[in-house]
Amino acid sequence: MNKTILGTGALFGLLAVIFGALGAHGLKNLLPESSLGSFQTGVAYQMYHALFLLVLGTMNQLEEKAKKSVFYLIAGGVLCFSFSIYALSTGPLLGLDFSAIGWITPVGGILLIAGWTLFIYRVFRGLN
């Protein structure tokens, strides 16, 4: 499982760098400032959680089951949160209306919060 967590963290990090460069250079003059700001928020959250997964994948203090649960919550949260923001931000540029998937963004946020909450709980539970 650690290999999967580390691989996912590395992939999310790589994609965050690529999407960050795309936002800073490729989309800068094509998107309104508000859309570009939202896009960069998606990139930032993706990178934060990529780094979190890299740490999680190297931790030996958590049980495998707990790591797996935290991983699924965080990975699902990144996919729902960041990737829905990318779609919503660039949709008008592509001539597509992704407004119907707008509800996915807060679901992703809830998954991220749940992942962090479970992580904190499991870390402090293990300190007994």
TrEMBL record:
Keyword Coiled coil attached = no
Organism encoding this protein: Robiginitalea aurantiaca
- InterPro entries with a match to the protein in the record: DUF423
Identify the stretch annotated as signal peptide in this record. Answer: none
Name the record gives this protein: DUF423 domain-containing protein
Keyword Nucleotide-binding in the entry? The reply is no
The protein's topology relative to the membrane is: Multi-pass membrane protein
The subcellular location is: Membrane
Q: Which domain of life is it from?
A: Bacteria
Transmembrane segment boundaries = 39-58, 70-88, 100-124
Q: Which family does it belong to?
A: Belongs to the UPF0382 family.
Tell me the keywords, alphabetical order: Membrane, Transmembrane, Transmembrane helix
